[in-house]
Amino acid sequence: MRKILFLCTWPALLLACNSAEEQDQTTTLAVEASAPAAAETPVKLIHAEEVQTLAVGSPAPDFSLPAVDGRIYSLKDFDDKKVLAVVFTCNHCPTAQAYEDRMIQIAKDYENKEVAFIAVSPNDPLAVRLDELGYSDMNDSYEEMKVRAKEKRYPFLYLYDGDTQAMSAAYGPVATPHAFVFDQDRKLQYVGRLDGSEKPGTGQGEDLRAALDAVLAGKAVAEATTKTFGCSVKWSGKREDAKETLAKWEAEEASLEEIDKESIKKLVANDGENLRLINVWATWCGPCTTEFPDFVDMSRMYGGREFELITISADKPEKKDKVLHFLNEKNAAASTNYIFTEDDKYALIEAIDPDWQGALPYTLLIKPNGEKVYARQGTIDPYEMKKEIVKQLGRYY
């Protein structure tokens, strides 16, 4: 223990690195041993142009998929219900999130009306680029689906089809969300939108409700096919695009500028237009370097919005080359990076935040008006940080 304390407290006692034991990580996206993961090499790469939406009157293709409860489900598991509603949706899409509460309410309203309501995530997580996650705090992995379902208290099953996308290719959703309603014989009677008002709070799922009511009554759906609006399905054929984008980012050069305490005070005052995330770190601080890639991911996720990541190195000024090497190693080209020009670290502490006690790393989230909405001494919980960013920026375009 003495050795650890000695290493972490250099060069000043008040700049102690927080050990892993001191972290207060209240939320983790742990991968359970039994959880399916996105396959590195699917049996067949699927491209959007190869997929056709199931026609009205067609029988429901069977499937065998894991739900967030850990069980595997297929069509026969819903034989006791008169109507089957399948909604293809996902975690990350802002339109899907806009319809999320409507889906929850519909499922509750019809749970005692002989309707089996299930949601399916059709996206291949490996085909989703980080810059496509700008309105979300998570991707579309199975593990993250479980977190989403728990947080929102989904009253319906949430199935994962990200590995092979076989079910999704058979049904043919074009966007998220996309609804399919089958009768008791499991023939498709409706395919399309939930309603025509995609903005949050502006619809009640009228089109889907009308379809469910008609099929329950044994009647034809008045408008059996409608268009749908939302994010395109991320088919596995898009993996190459994701890889090329990542390679492009990795080829970009990071920059490093010097900054003094007066300029830091102006950064913290934030008289700009962007939500500003500031991370103070050092190359000699183990927790700092360990969590740094999470900040790089956030800069890529939210960089297309009113957001900016600023990193400030507390390394000695003569270590500038070492700091720049680290930044390039971690592909930090999307952030604005500084190194403090003074040896007096207490001047850095006061310039950043008088409430900061001096332990590294230190992270601030500041609104354009200078209001501090998040401050943490020690490592962050990446998921909680993303949630706070999305809370400030908004989940909808």
Structure description:
The protein has two domains: 2-26 and 252-393, Glutaredoxin, CATH 3.40.30; 48-239, Glutaredoxin, CATH 3.40.30.10. The protein is built from eleven helices and 15 strands. It has helices at 2-9, 94-110, 142-152, 166-171, 206-216, 239-251, 261-269, 286-302, 320-329, 345-352, 382-393, and strands at residues 65-66, 72-73, 83-88, 115-121, 157-160, 175-176, 178-182, 188-192, 231-232, 257-259, 275-281, 307-313, 336-340, 362-366, 372-377. The strands form four sheets. The chain has a six-stranded mixed sheet with strand order 10-13-12-11-14-15, sandwiched between helices. It is elongated and about 80 Å long.
SSE order = HEEEHEHEHEEEHEHEHEHEHEHEEH
Strand content: 15-25%
Radius of gyration: 24 Å
Give the name of the CATH superfamily of the largest domain.
Glutaredoxin
Q: Per CATH, what is the topology of the largest domain?
A: Glutaredoxin
CATH architecture of the largest domain: 3-Layer(aba) Sandwich
Global outline: elongated
Overall pLDDT, averaged?
Answer: 91
Low-confidence stretches: 1-16, 18-35
| Biggest sheet descriptor | 6 strands, mixed
**Distinct helical segment count:** 11
Level of helix content? 25-40%
The strand order across the widest sheet is 10-13-12-11-14-15
Number of strands: 15
- Tally the structural domains: 2
CATH class of the largest domain: Alpha Beta
Structural class: alpha/beta
Organism: Pontibacter ummariensis
Main location: other
Keywords: Cytochrome c-type biogenesis, Redox-active center, Signal
InterPro entries: AhpC/TSA (IPR000866), PRX-like1 (IPR047262), Redoxin (IPR013740), Thioredoxin-like_sf (IPR036249), Thioredoxin_CS (IPR017937), Thioredoxin_domain (IPR013766)
